[in-house]
Amino acid sequence: xKTKIIYRIENPTDKNGMWYDKDGEPKKQIxxxxxxxxDKNLPMPKNLELHRKDGEEWFSAGKSIExxxxxxxxxxxxxxxxxxxxLFKFEVNMWQELEYEILFCKKGIISKVxxxxxxxxxxxxxx
Length: 127
What we know:
Blueprint: E1 4-10, H1 29-33, H2 48-51, E2 58-61, H3 65-71, H4 74-82, E3 86-92, E4 95-97, E5 102-105, E6 109-114
Antiparallel strand pairs: 1-3, 2-5, 3-6, 4-5
């Protein structure tokens, strides 16, 4: 079985992302929590053909850890962290590779590990 490593910033309590909640409803938390964010204007259109493929729910993730550093500044990452979001590395066996992102299905998660922010950005986080 083929697997892929991907990266996602999400809220571990409610599983919400920054543009959509876990149910696929637009929330745009990125605009509230990162008003000067690098990628707050990144178009994240919901495409039901892709986001509900095979009757499953698919979620957005970065293709690499470098994506996270490109998409989010240290200021963005810290603001998201202070508001309950965390950076995770997933190993998955269900994914769709798009031009700028990976869509993955949560039932295809093999492993999930939180990555400390200082491993990606030059910041110190109060834990």
